[in-house]
Amino acid sequence: MKLFSRLKNLERYEKYALIAIIIAVIVRFSLAGIYSVSGDACWHLSAARFMADSSKIPLFEPLGRDEPFWAPPLFHIIASFSYLLLGEFGLKIIAPIFGSLALIISYFILRYFLNAKASFYGILFLSFIPISIDYSVLAYTESMLTFFVVLSIYLALRNNFILSGIAAGLAVLTKYNGAFVIPVLMFIAYKNSKNHLRLKNSLILLIIPLIISLPWFIRNWLLLGNPVWPFLNFIFSGFDKLSYSALDLGSIFSLRTYISAYLGFFGIPDGNYNTLNFIGIPYLDLLFAVFLAGTIIFLLPLLFGFRKHKGSSIFYLLLASFLVLFALYVANVGPLVSRMLLPAFIALAFFYGIGVDNIVLRYKKFGYFFIVLMIMVSFGFVIAEYAKFSIASESWNSYQDDFKWARENTEKDAVFMAGGQCMSFYLDRFTLLPKTENIKKADYAFVNQDFRVDKARAMTPEDVLENIRENGNIVYENKETKTEVYAIG
Questions:
Q1: Over the stretch 284-334, which tens digit does the pLDDT of each residue have?
Q2: What average pLDDT does this structure show over 246-250?
Q3: Angle at the Cα of 281 (from 280 to 287), degrees rounded to 5?
Q4: Can you give the C-alpha Rg of the chain in angstroms?
């Protein structure tokens, strides 16, 4: 009864914010229900499943990538326990849980600085911008990373610096990127602490995350020669295979980088317009133009929001810190970096809330019309997300008979030769890339030269395919999907 009483006494815009969060959570969990694992998530979940089955952290096991397991393991450890409890469903539920929790904590942060109206506008932005939806559904590490980042900020604002440091350490143990919140936390500690406590609290926020994450950095340094492998390998000269040893500063100034980032913010896979051709719908160019117009309308309040306000220095610093990460990633890895900035989107939500509030105050009737327009655009984003996830899921599901046959008719410890990092996940077997030198190491070859969902990576080179067909025996064929499985061991 006390809960209902408290809900009844909420301000009008606090109730609106609660409704927005509830809708956003429902959207995330319902999308998770239709989501088929793809992309980097396949590698992460293959590692989690391996950890659940073997009770150890992988290193050089062939889990879909031709590289060692290097990623900070907290996401994978939690996912492995979830898998033991709930099976495959447990692997897919991690992202929406942490994505939803991140939304709730983000609202508390916004409400700490902003009035009820501006906080509602900010949480509306954070709830329905497509990148936030995507990475609260996709089984990537970003949802958990973002949760620990915003939790560490919230705890620091509450002057609980020990717990804030623990949350920051868990962020780093989820993904290296978590380290970029530490300067923000130290700034909060310096700003909010009494003079004689500033140094102590700042050191707490530096030392605790270091203690929590140091064992993993030492592990990677000892085994791979680089504490942050595969990144910045030109500094550490670690294990060289598939590491990032270049530093291309020109990429930072490339227009393509920022176009890709912008499109990625709004849910375009890899920030690449050409990936939409996979959908095969008519009038794609016209629909894309309408979509772009919607993104511009949606972001318009940011032009009115970058103002000096209580707490604005914290959010400017948060943006600056993750923009440094953005620049490092672009120069060292490449331009597909939209999700690198996701933990800093709470800062954009802060300025967004201020911007909408300013529009409403300055333009009155038009301002309220703009809010309606913004909600309509948000609705359009959600519809587009459902369409995107449904199409992708349907495409993966068309191969389920092939995957099922392989799981049911081959040995659990069999090794497949198959292209693409998702084959290990769907076959539930170790996989090696389709290369001549791997033929003698594999027991089976999964061949599909017309694999719709990952054609470039899944295709077997012709010389390798010829060798497989000459020396192997076909044990499965699906003429409808064009899949063939060969015994080659």
A1: 778 888 889 999 999 999 999 998 888 899 999 999 999 999 999 998 887
A2: 79
A3: 130
A4: 24
Q: Where are the beta strands (DSSP E) in 196-338?
A: none
Report the candidate in 311, 272, 404, 287 with the shortest Cα–Cα distance to residue 113.
311
d(CA 114, CA 289): 34
Percentage of residues in the chain having pLDDT higher than 90: 73
| Residue 79 C-alpha from the chain's centroid | 15
CB burial of residue 58 (10 Å; 0-12, 13-18, 19+): middle
Helix (H, G, I), strand (E, B) or coil at 474: strand
Residue 365 region, left (φ>0) first, then alpha (ψ -120 to 50), else beta?
A: alpha
Q: Which helix (H) or strand (E) segment is 96 a member of?
A: helix 94-113
Q: Which of 135, 228, 121 is nearest to 175 (CA)?
A: 228
**Predicted local distance difference test score (pLDDT) of residue 269:** 81
3-state secondary structure of 321: helix
- Which one-letter DSSP state was computed for residue 246? -
415: three-class secondary structure by DSSP: strand
Q: Which residues of 408-437 are buried (b: 16+ CB within 10 A; e: fewer)?
A: eebeeebbbbbbbbbbbbbbbbbbbbbbee
User: pLDDT: is 242 or 187 the higher one?
Assistant: 187
**pLDDT at residue 219 in the model:** 97
Q: Please answer whether residues 406 and 326 qualify as being in contact, where contact means their C-beta atoms are separated by less than 8 angstroms.
A: no
Within the chain, how many helices (H) and strands (E) appear?
Answer: 23, 5
What is the DSSP code (8-state) at residue 249?
G
What confidence score (pLDDT) does residue 117 get? Answer: 95
Q: Which residues contact 441 (CB under 8 A, 6 or more apart)?
A: 415, 432
**478 three-class SS:** strand
Phi, psi of 309 (to 5 degrees): -155, 160
Peptide bond before residue 269 is cis, with ω within 30 degrees of 0 = no
Contact between residue 271 and residue 338 where contact means Cβ atoms under 8 Å apart = yes
Exposed / middle / buried, residue 365 (Cβ in 10 Å: 0-12, 13-18, 19+): exposed
- 185 pLDDT higher than 90: yes
Predicted confidence band at 7 (pLDDT cuts at 50, 70, 90)?
low
Nearest to 184 by CA among 109, 239, 121, 125: 109
